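Run folding on both entries below.
>entry_1
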Amino acid sequence: MIELGYPRRGLHGHVVDELGRHIVSGRWATGEPMPNEDDFVAELGVSRTVVRESIKVLQAKGLVEVRPKTGTRVRPRRAWHLLDPDVVGWLFAGIERGVDLGDLRELHEVRATIETAAARLAAGRRTEAELSEIEANERRVEAAWAEPLAERAADLDFHAAVVEAAHNGLLSHVSALIRVALEATDAASNGSGEIARRAAALRAQVARGLRAGDAEAAEAAMRELVEHDWTRLSKGMI
């Protein structure tokens, strides 16, 4: 699995994470001066050095600008590095606090593009070992039906394994970012009853298409599976 994001260990990582969440959630409006170093020292209980270095990290992510005499200000969202894994995590964690569905819809559109293309490629490129991993993850999802967190993790592993089987490093990297967003947004299960049964049937169709080397079948099943997940997830956010 690709490791993404800024390390959250220690005071420095904690401060980067906390300030990043506050910025993305709108605590300070675009263009508004943020508190100065002394204010953050008092609020966070850390040294000026930690604050200063943390601001530099956030500046590198496009979230803030630092200018002499005018201080630190939040940059417009269009300047944020939306392919940065930390920014993605902070952004999508906010959806559960009532952010509109626009960000989630954009995520779905990217996911549909990436995962359907990956399924098509994987049908012709997957190894037997990769297919075995995909099928094992499919079984893990079904076995974990009574444990929502384990079920969701197994489902994400299933999708990630399909993308890995496409043998395209860029697709894998974008897929890892999508997973960051989904993990930040959704800790729920894949649903119950008919919803879960339909998802299971679609995962099985993806796996069968991959085993048969049928690119069109694998792509079509993955497209329907991602659409199914979008319907479940978006309804859960309304």
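>entry_2
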Amino acid sequence: MITQVETGSPNILAFRLRGKLHDEDYRTFLPGVDAAVAAAQGKLRLLAQFEDFHGWDVQAAWEDFKFGVRHYADFDRIAFVGERRWQKWMAVICKPFTKAEVKYFDASEIETAWAWVREAS
């Protein structure tokens, strides 16, 4: 399940990802992101918080890949906040698929992640 988190800024998107993601999750999630990108003045920032996250089914993984390709240059910072070592590797793996600066934060560092995403460039 993907749940949008209120950020107080039109140029910062945040989502909480829980459980195992399916393509239905992306069908509800992606239109909002596409609309935010279209309305943005400049690049967006993204915070993805993984809680009790179990990965993707095959179709959802494909949707996630297409999302990355479609929005390759739309973000300037992406923060991954996770609970497991493999989630840290996701931050490393996604770097070639985005122009954004990507950082991983442990779940205990959530406030630091928010500060980094909100920090002026």
